[in-house]
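Running co-folding for glyoxylic acid.
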Amino acid sequence: MNRVFVTRILPEPAMARLRAADLALDVWPEPGPPPYDELLRRVAGVHGLLTLLTDRIDARLLDAAGPGLRVVSQMAVGVDNIDLAACTARGIPVGHTPGVLSDAVADLTIGLMIATARRFFEANADMRAGRWTTWEPMGWTGPDLHGSTVGIVGLGRIGQAVARRLQGFNVRLLYHNRRLHPQAEELGATYVSLDDLLAASDFVTLHCPYTPDTHHLIDARALALMKPTAILINTARGGVVDQDALLEALRSGKIRAAGLDVFTPEPLPPDHPLLALPNVVALPHVGSASIATRIRMAEMAVENLLAGLAGRPLPHCANPDVYARA
Ligand code: GLV
């Protein structure tokens, strides 16, 4: 019987599918992730691993699992917590959940743009603290999203979903991507260099994967290219931005504000200086957190897991070159 370790309790439809499969199932019962040492112990001898982005899956862990490990399936689209090369080298396919969360993340991105520009949380905090004393002509004002120039960094599935939504906002759309995107014209998006995008955009929104190439893509130099009135939105991964440089840019007014769903580290400590800034809207990595989306992500993760255990190609594989080795 296949042994499987699941690193967190999943939504019930996914748990039911796991229970219905003929598996020796070990599910981490705590609300938080298993500590790395515990993970090392629990994976010994498993054939399948179902992970979250909070689990570090590296070569040491794969070795601790042993040669019987046939699949790692993650309930997320991003897999930067997993050493893909180490998995590929061992012939282990890695599953992930692209597509199903693009709309939810794009919805949240538009929400963050408006909440940050129009200062939702600052205004709400003032109201709760009794500082709403009158209707002021310029009270709690901010820039418009409609009619602005928006720069999308990474025009993949999520970037495109953001672009589609922005068509309703009459914006001028710029994008930067590793390569020109065939859909861009239809979306009304113009390709520009990253530097030109940073210099021209009122909103810069990040939708690239986190890889060694995109580590600190938005650093002090990039922030200095942005307009002092610009807003940075990050629903990708914290590591795409040099967070210390961002803190400095927000403090000194090099950019106007930031709407952030992802951080370094996660969870971000509540006393982190970013959270004390009025021009930061911060959310605890909830881009895909619609009920239906999270349920579907968990189901997809189970589908990938079961395919890998059965020796079938994963429906959604993050390291497809693993199959070229065979
Ligand atoms: C969430 O951040 C994901 O990668 O799915």
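Result summary
The mean pLDDT is 97.
The chain has two domains: 2-98+291-325, 102-282.
Job closed.
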